[in-house]
Amino acid sequence: MATLSTAFTLPLRSFVLDVSIDVGGTVALVGPSGAGKTSVLGAVAGLVQPSSGRIALDADAWFDSAQGLFLQPDERRVGLVFQEYALFPHMNVRENVAYGGKNRADEYLERFRISHLAGARPTELSGGERQRVALARALARDPGVLLLDEPLSALDANTRAAVRGELQELLREFDLPTLLVTHDFEDAAALAERVSVIVDGRLRQSGTASELVAMPADAFVASFTGANLLHGVAEPSANGSTRVHLDDGTVVTTADAAGGAVTLAVYPWDITVGMAPPSDSAMNVIGGPVRSVAEFGNRVRVAIGPVTAEITGESLTRIGLRPGAVAYASFKATGTRVVAEADR
Question: pLDDT, tens digit, for every residue of 10-28?
Answer without folding.
Answer: 999 999 999 999 999 999 9
